[in-house]
Amino acid sequence: MTVDVMMPFYGDVAHFKQAVTSVVGQSDADWRLVVVDDCYPDPEPARWLKTLDDSRITYLRNDNNLGVNGNFRRCVDLVASDYFVVMGCDDVMAPDYLATVKSLASANPGAAVIQPGVDVIDDAGMPVRPLGDRIKSRLAPSRATVLSGEVLACSLFHGNWTYFPSLLWRTSAVRAVGFRTGFDVVLDLALLIDLTIDGGSLVYDPTVVFSYRRHGGSVSSIQAVDGRRFDEENRFFAEQADQCGERGWSKAARAARFHPTSRLNQAIQRTSAAIGRVRR
After folding, report:
1. Domain count, the chain
2. What integer pLDDT is reported at residue 267 of this predicted model?
3. Pairwise CA distance, residues 202 & 265, whole Å
4. What whole-number distance in Å separates Cα of residue 10 and Cα of residue 38?
């Protein structure tokens, strides 16, 4: 089973090299890495990739900057295998990541997405446990399981406990629904919900095989400061509440209207911003 590791790139070059190195170091060597450079103003990533001299690695540069959503959608368009990962260009795979998610996919061939266990690192690569990630760990299932239908939708509306860059996706399932346009921060949650509504299931295994980098330069962190993130989230949840209501998923509709962890995060961020303005 060849897995396409799609890596939309625009960011820290040192982190990017670490991410690529973690792919190259996989115990399962049956992979293809496609780096899609969204017009980053530095030739170093392309130069460095050439030095690796690995036929499994492809480097592409967009003619124009597509932005987060556009580049993610281009990555999906470029997938050639039955399964793929859209890995962050600053995240790190453990050596047995691909072997683990492939095994889970083989055991659950009908699943749309696989979520393995994830830990969180900071800019320097050190383990961290911010409040948001502690909440995610409490919301995630307590043991290995398979979720689908309204149960999965409710779980994700209560709080998105998944980590997008660590997810293994079944290509045919994703292409049947596609990434929605108009979202930058919640595009991963939107895709998960659309897959759920389309009948897809999610396999979860808590075995930690992926490191997600949490830092202030992420799109979600930047947009949280000026409120754009929460405007987008509120619009998304309102739409989903209506859609679930129309499907007769009353519990999911209530969960979408309430979206408790999103509301809590909004309150925390706005309070922090207000304190910061007072101190200045």
Report:
1. 1
2. 57
3. 25
4. 6
Average pLDDT, consecutive stretches of 10 residues, N- to C-terminus, the chain (280 residues): 96 96 98 97 96 97 92 94 97 98 97 98 94 90 97 95 97 90 85 96 98 71 58 90 96 90 62 49
Residues 6+ apart with CB under 8 A from 32: 2, 3, 4, 5, 56, 57, 58, 80, 81
CB 67, CB 38: distance < 8 Å: yes
Q: Give the residue among 236, 220, 238 at the shortest CA–CA distance from 228.
A: 220
Alpha helices in the chain, H assignment, sequence order: 13-24, 44-52, 67-78, 97-107, 131-139, 149-158, 171-177, 187-197, 219-226, 228-247, 250-258, 260-279
Which amino acid appears at position 47 of this protein? R
The residue to which tokens 């409040």 are assigned:
131
pLDDT at position 222: 43
| Token pair belonging to 270 | 């706005």
8 Å CB contact between 128 and 215 = no
CATH number, position 134 = 3.90.550.10
219-226 vs 228-247: helix axis angle to the nearest 10? Answer: 100
**101-to-12, 63, 67, 115, 203 alpha-carbon distances in Å:** 27, 33, 28, 8, 10
Q: 3-class secondary structure for 133-188? A: HHHHHHHCCCCCEEEEHHHHHHHHHHCCCCCHHHCEEEHHHHHHHCCCCCCCCCHH
What is the structure's pLDDT at 248?
97
Q: 251 lies in which domain range?
A: 3-279
What predicted TM-score, i.e. pTM, was given to this entire model? 0.90
pLDDT at residue 56, rounded to an integer? 98
User: Taking a C-beta distance cutoff of 8 angstroms, is the pair 36, 75 a contact?
Assistant: yes
